[in-house]
Specification:
The structure is a single chain. With 291 residues, this protein is α+β, with helices and mostly antiparallel strands. Helices cover 24% and strands 29% of the residues. It has helices spanning 3-26, 30-51, 55-67, 78-89; strands spanning 116-123, 128-134, 139-143, 149-156, 158-166, 186-197, 203-205, 213-218, 222-229, 242-247, 266-272, 280-283. The protein has a 6-stranded mixed beta sheet, covered by helices on one side. Mean pLDDT is 85; it is low at 47-51 and 170-176.
């Protein structure tokens, strides 16, 4: 057989095979054809879903982009703040694998504040992500966040938040300086004093304003997601300090800087040791992957 004849016969054979396959496809039952397409579509959707980052991973990536750009103590730009806020505002308990019937949130009949559970998601020198799980009446006592920008997102439940910022005394109207502040205490202005109910927007505090010192009280079982940038570090001078607050009138005659009708909005803060009944226990985070 010469080459020309061989090539012609090969082409004829290939065409016959192609026609046979097309005929077999056309003769497939209609249901099988639909089923085949359906399986393929489901497989593609599953693959696409797998490739899409979950909201926790999206939060981590955005935190990594934002906080690694700035030196410790530097407040991120307003646009970067907004990027993180938009993600956190959209988050709920399901995004981190939480439900209100988990053991962390059970009411405990005991004296003092019930224990609080902390779920650790991530921490580096630049930022940390974690969740505080509070049963009813649990309290995170008044404490500060030195040189830190902090995002707090209430995932579910009801929580009372009271926060303060330091304020400096000024001279009186006659130009005379007021007497010095009482020894051991410092004047602070109330920034927030209200109950938050989820779903609600993210609270943000800054190194010098926004309520850098705050206290959380669980009105119901609740969970709050915290992003700290940067996290606490004793080595770098970011030590967590606890405070006791006293009404402005607790030290009568000491200062006259605050007008009589405004004094409800100010308190005296005194450093204290960590409260004995403040008990935080760690637990394994079992929600969607962070990285």
């Amino acid at each position: 057989v010469n080459l020309k004849t061989f090539i012609r016969n090969s082409l004829i054979y290939m065409n016959l095979i192609r026609e046979k396959k097309q005929k077999e496809i056309c003769e497939l039952p209609k249901g099988n054809r639909i089923s085949s397409v359906s399986v393929k579509l489901k497989k593609n959707r599953k693959q696409n879903k797998k490739n899409m980052p979950n909201v926790v991973r999206k939060l981590f990536r955005t935190c990594n982009e934002v906080f690694t750009t700035y030196e410790a103590g530097t407040v991120p730009s307003s646009s970067d703040i907004e990027r993180l806020k938009v993600i956190l505002d959209s988050m709920g308990p399901a995004d981190v694998g939480l439900t209100s019937d988990m053991p962390y949130f059970r009411r405990i009949d005991s004296e003092g504040s019930p224990p609080i559970t902390y779920l650790h998601l991530y921490e580096s020198e630049k930022f940390s992500i974690g969740i505080f799980c509070l049963p009813p009446s649990a309290v995170i006592p008044l404490h500060n966040h030195p040189g830190m920008t902090v995002f707090s997102k209430l995932l579910f439940g009801s929580m009372h938040i009271k926060s303060y910022d330091w304020t400096e005394l000024s001279g009186n109207a006659n130009g005379n300086l007021d007497p010095p502040q009482p020894t051991g205490v410092r004047l602070a202005e109330v920034k927030v004093d209200c109950v938050f109910n989820a779903p609600c927007n993210t609270s943000i505090l800054y190194p010098a304003d926004g309520g850098n010192m705050h206290c959380f009280t669980a009105m119901t079982s609740c969970a709050v997601l915290d992003v700290l940038g940067p996290p606490y570090s004793n080595a770098e001078g970011r030590h967590c300090t606890y405070y006791q607050d006293f009404p402005y009138k607790s030290f009568p005659g000491e200062v006259r800087s605050v007008a009589e009708n405004e004094r409800e909005g100010y308190v005296w803060l005194e450093e204290r040791e960590k409260p004995d009944d403040f008990n935080v226990v760690g637990a394994m985070y079992r929600g969607p992957k962070v990285r």
